[in-house]
Amino acid sequence: MTERLYYTDSFLTRFEARVLSCVPSGERYAVCLDRTAFYPTSGGQPHDTGRLGAARVLEVIEDGDDIVHLTDRPVEPGPIEGEIDWSRRFDHMQQHTGQHLLSAAFLHLFGFPTVSFHLGRQVSTIDLQAVSVVARHLEEAELRANEIIFEDRPVRISFSGEAELKDRAIRKAVERRGLLRIVEIADVDVQPCGGTHVAHTGQVGQLQIRHLERQRGFWRVEFVCGGRALEAAREDRVSLTAAARTIGCGRSEVPGMVSKMLEEARRLRQQMEKLEQRLAELEARARMRPGGVVLEAIADGRPEWLRRLAAALLQEGVRAVFLVGADTKAVVCARARDAGVDAAGILRQIFSLVGGRGGGSAEFAQGTLPAGAPVEAVLERARQLLAATASPQAG
Fold this sequence. Notes:
Diaminopimelate Epimerase, Chain A, domain 1, 21 strands, 31% strand, Elongation Factor Tu (Ef-tu), domain 3, 395 residues
């Protein structure tokens, strides 16, 4: 059994221990000590890193009551000094204590229990059990958690048997039995937990909720604390300042200006669609040949333009249309309702000749040819396939 020094002192960065065993494990070495300050991956919190002597500790895992340190090189049996990567450890302490605060806030304010927790490289998450979580819930829970952070309440570690916990209002029941490690935030939260935590809530610094989404029947809340919150705020400021500079307004005006710009873009898009429709009708009349077939390579070969032009040609009485975007290699094949042409079948035969992909129905089909497809050869093959319907008019 490995003695876990971090249970009583999460701030311990250097320690002395004895190497009990060191065996190869793939390209790494599995090292067991009699005591350790290295936290193993468990309970939603990632492992510590650091060094054992001259060896780098790459990963730390649990093996029953033992903790295994996976290193980049072997270490000799006997006494050894270990050192924790403090920046990684303290970051995890800030996020984990912040999680306890946020989970307690959601439970006390709204009755939303936390069902799981994950501490990621960039953000951490809690999954809430609730019918609905809205912006008001996020704002109030975030505010409450930060109030407790600013009050700098003590975070105490104690050990208690499961029977003794029956008289304490723990936030979430645990499956472990026997002697349990309890993390208590004064007058806020009591929870059995084996993770590393700060000594006072003020050391969490700040907590920011970043995102909310529905995930597997629960509500997943993304958040950051401490140094991560500072970095997130810095990135937000840089992005908002760049947006304000581009738009030509103050940072506080960006949301309103973006809304106005989106509305203007929507209005212009509708206007453009009307103009394009009118242009397609005029272009169709210039190519009109009632009862005939139109095959053409179009310089402005956007798929949406080819579709619009093909529909306008059919409206003018053309029996069948085959259009290719000379620049985009987009292709559209369409026919009048009474024409005996299988548009999708024609495209399949074209694709079998030069490659490409797409599909559709007997009345309308579309797709894309390979970048190097010979447009003239494609038009000629389409001309042959449509020859039975009417004499084609080539563009």
